[in-house]
Amino acid sequence: MFNFGAGGHTLLRPDPPILNATTSVWNSTQFEKAMTVAPHIVLIMLGTNDAVSTTWKALGSRYTADYEAMIAGFKSLPSKPQVYALTSPPLYNGNFAGINQTVVNTVLPPLVHEVRCACCETPAVKRHTPANHCPRIPPRTHPHSHTHARTHTHTQSLAHSLSLAHSLSLARCTHLF
To answer: What is the CATH number of the domain that holds 33?
Structure first.
């Protein structure tokens, strides 16, 4: 299993240059590597950093198109991976770090569902469940060290279930988040 998450990066492409090109996952070394490992399963959970109020106001209308383009890129790989669109965990602390809670909790989940319907043969996967049932999650955007292991274990369990369901090798599971 490969984790090509790029903390602080956006799904939105940096064109027009309103975004710093170094903050887009499209320009990250992690994304470049993810495209070269011949994955069988790809889990994508992006959007929280796109929900920064200034970014979302300027470019949010492109979220669906950029997500669809990313899925198309993975699906065009020779390994023909199953691609799963995951919803981001909810934001519990208002507008933490400028990230708009309403966008993360209310706007993004239906958009991920829309992308899934347009691009994937597979269902959107909600990641809200482990976070909602974890009383120690601090009021921030991402789990910290004491909850990271539980979140990672859930992701591994999800990937393992998907690999069994599709008779695919978990060794070639790639996730971006």
So the answer is: 3.40.50
| Alpha carbon separation from 64 to 11, 69, 105, 115, 152 (Å, rounded) | 10, 9, 16, 6, 26
What are the backbone dihedrals phi and psi of residue 159, each rounded to the nearest 5 degrees, phi first?
-60, -40
Give this prediction's pTM.
Answer: 0.75
The answer, yes or no, to whether the previous bond of 123 is cis (omega within 30 of 0) is no
The radius of gyration of the chain from alpha carbons, rounded to an integer in Å, stands at 15
Give the tokens for residue 77: 């790989």
Scanning the structure block, which residue is given the tokens 């770090």?
Answer: 97
The average pLDDT across 25-47 equals 90
Q: Which SS3 state, helix, strand or coil, does residue 141 take?
A: coil
**Distance between CA 20 and CA 154 in Å, rounded?**
32
Contact 67, 107 (CB under 8 A): no
Number of H helices, E strands in the chain: 7, 5
Q: Tell me whether strands 173-176 and 125-126 are parallel, antiparallel or unpaired.
A: unpaired
* Domain carrying residue 24: 2-176
